[in-house]
Amino acid sequence: MKVVIDTGNYIAARAAMMAKPKVVAAYPITPQTTIVEGIAKYVENDELDAEYICVESEHSAMSACIGAAATGVRTFTATSSHGLLLMHEMLHWAALARLPIVMCNVNRAIGPGWNIWCDENDSIAQRDTGWLQFYCSSNQEVFDTVIQAYKIVENEKVLLPAMINLGGFILSHTSLPVRIPEQKEVDEFLPPYEPKWRLDVNHPITHGNIIFPDDYYKIRYNMQLAQDNSRKIIKEVAREWREKFGTYHGDLVEEYRCDDAELVILAMGAIGAEAKVAVDKIRKNGLKVGLLRIRAFRPFPEEEIIGMAKKCNKLLVIDRNISVGNEGALAGETRACLKDRVEDANVYGFIAGLGGKDVTYIDIEKMCKMVIDGKAGRVEWYGLG
Amino acid sequence: MKKYNVKTGISYPKIGAMGKTGTWRIFKPILDKNKCIKCLRCWVFCPESAIKRRNDSVEIDYDYCKGCGVCANVCPVKAIVMAKEER
Amino acid sequence: MAIKDFPIEEYVLPGNAACPGCPSTMGLRTVLKALGKKTILTIPACCTAVIQSWYPYTSFNVPTLNIAFEAAASAASGIAAALKKLGEEDINVVVWAGDGGTYDIGLQALSGAIERQTNFLYICYNNQIYSNTGIQRSGATPYAAWTTTTVKGKKEFRKDIGEIIIAHHVPYAATACVSYPEDLYNKVKKTMGIRGPKYIEILAPCPPGWRFSMDKTVEMGKLAVETGAWILYEYENGKLSFNGISKSIAEGKYKPKPVEDWLKLQGRFSHLFKPEKDIVRINAIKDHIRDTWEHYKKLASL
Fold first, then answer.
1. What superfamily does domain C3-301 belong to in CATH?
2. Binning pLDDT at 50, 70 and 90, where does residue B56 land?
3. Do A233 and A299 share a domain, yes or no?
4. What is the pLDDT of residue B87?
C-alpha cells in the first residue's frame, strides 16, 4: 500500500491498468483525455499488457470493446459528454449482449454552446441502457470503484457493463491523495477474466441474430434480474474491499450522520462530497441534517431510500441534471419509489450546478435553510440569479 | 455442442433452422444423372447449400431446396430441369 | 482453384432464411469454403442478419457476431485485438457487410479500421441497394436505377468505393462477382496470407431488388462483367491488375456486350426502355462505364 497524489483521471487510468484489461479502445474528449493518455502510456511502457486501439470515434470505441469482450477478454474504455452520447446505441448493445465492459465517464455538459464543465446530463441520458452506474465523490472512490466494478460485473449473476462517473474537472483534474494497494493484492481481489460466453471457433455460435418477441421479452427480463442481483454483489464487493484494503465509500449509498436527522440530503458525485461539509457546518448550528449519498444510480437504491424516508420524511434532492419537461432525474426517481410506500415523505428537488456552475457547501447550506424555513417548493432551480 | 447459460441472444447452428424450406418451392429441379457431366456448377452456385456433393456426383436435398432454379440455369448440359411442384 | 477442388464443408447450412436465388448466401458459401472453420464473422445490419435464421438457431456454422449497422469494422478491430492477446492470431477476422453498411453508414468505421491496420478481411457484398429494408437507394446504387426512394431512377452515379479503399494504401483490395466462384475463392485465399486490412467487394445481383427472375442471379452477374458495368480487379502491393473477362476487355481481346443486354433484363431499369427508349440516360450510363474503364486502365498502368 502506498499513497499517491494525483488527478481523478490519472487515478482512473491507474485503476484500469491494475485491473489488467487486455483491450482498451478509446477516443479522446475533454475532460476525459488524460485517462486515455495515461492508459496509452502504460501500454507503451509495457506496464499494461494490453492492445490499445486508437479508434476514430466513441461509437467505434464501444463497438471495439464489444468485439473484444465477445472474443473473451477484459476491456476498458473512457469517455465524456458528446462521446458518451455518440456511444448510446452501442451501450444498449453491450448490455443486451451481457458483456461486462467497464468504462469511466467524466461528467460534462452537452452543447450547444460548447461547455466542458461538470454536468450529469450525459450519463443520466444513458440510464435506460442497462449499464450499472456509479457516481464518485473522491479520487479514492474512483480508484476503488473501477476495480470493484470489474468484480461486480464479471459475476455471473450480473454480467452487465458498468459506468463509473466522475465529475469533469472537479475530480478529473484535481489532485487528491489516494491509497494504492500492491498489484499482488489487487490480483488476489480480482481474479483473471473468465468469459461466460465467447466467439469460439471450436464451438461456433451466432450472437444477436433475429429474435422474436417472446424470447426478446425474456432477455430484457433477465437484464432486470441482473440489475436486481447486482445490489447484493455491490454490497459484498464493497465489504470485501474494506476488509482487504481499508477504504470504504458505502455500497449503493453512503449514509452520513443520518441517524437522528430531521432533514436528509440526497446527492450524487462530487456534490455528495460538498454536502458532507455542509452537513457538518449545519449541525454546528444545532440543525439535524444528514446525507444519503447515492453511489449507484443503476441499480437504483430503492430500498435504501425508502428506509431513509421512513426514518426521516424530509428529503432534499440535489440534481446536477435536468430531464427537461419534468425535473431532476434523482428527485423524480426518488418520488416515484416513495409513492404509496412512504405516505408522509416530502421530496424537495433542487436543480443545481448545470454546465459546471459551482455548488459549494455554502450553497447546500442555503438549500437546507430554504427547506427548513418552508420556502422550498417541489422543484427549485437554485442560483438562477 | 457447448451451451452457454448467459441469457442473451446466443443461437446454435442447426440444419433447417428455418424448418423444411423445401416447402417454399413452386418449381422443383429434376436432375438427369445420365446427362450430368459432373462439373459441379450446380453445387457451387446453389444459394441454399441444398445440392449435396457425393464425390464427383451431386444430389438435390429436397427438404431444403427452395426451387430458385439457379442450378438448372447454370447447368451447361441441361441435366437439371425445373418442373412444377406437385404436392 | 477449380470448383472440384473446393472443400466439401458447408458453413452456410441449408434451411436458412435467405430468399430463393440469394446472391449473399451464394457468395458467402464460397467465401467460407476458402476461409475454413477458423473464422470469426461479424455482420452489421443487412440481409445476412436475417439470412442467419432466428434465435435460438443459426444457419451459420462459424462464430458470428451481429453488430450495429455502422459498427462492423470497429467490432472487427476489437475481435482482432482480443485474438492477438489470446495468442489466436491464426483465426480469420472477417466482416461480411452489405453496400449500405459499407459505402454509407459504415464508411467511417471502415476507414478507421483500415487506417489503424486492423488485421482483418472486410467483404462487402454489394447488391447496390438497401435490400433488407425493402430496396432503397444507397451510395452504391447505379445511375438511373429504380429503387423505392428513387422512383424515377437514381439521379447520381454510384460512389467509387474501391478507390477510397485503395487511397488508404491497403495491402490488398479486390472486386469479385458471385458468378465467378473460382476467382472469388482464389482472392479470399490470397488474403489469408496477407497481414493487415484486406478488402473484397462482391457484386451480388439481388432478384427482388433488381427485379429479375430468381433463377438468373448468376447470369445477371456475368452480364454485369461482360458488359463492363462491373470490373474485376485486384490491387496488390500498390499495383492494380484486371482479372477474368475484365482482363480480356482491358487487353482488347474481348468486346464488351452492349450494356442494354444487362439493363433490359432488370425491372429496375425498365423505365429506360418503355414507353420509349431513354437514349439520354442510357448514353449517360455508357459514358460512365467508358470513363470508369479509362480511369481504371490509367490506375493499372501506374
1. Thiamin diphosphate (ThDP)-binding fold, Pyr/PP domains (3.40.50.970)
2. confident
3. no
4. 79
